[in-house]
Amino acid sequence: MFLYDVFPPELIKVGLEAEDKDEVFEELVDYFCQAQGSDEREELLAALKNRELKMSTGIRKGIAVPHGQTNMVERIYGVLGISKRGIDYDALDGEPVYLVFMILTPHKDSERHLRLLKRLTQLLDNETFFRDLVVQKDAQGVSGLIKKYEDILLALD
Question: Which of 57, 67, 71, 97 fits a disulfide with 103 by CB distance 3.0 to 4.6 angstroms?
Answer without folding.
Answer: 67
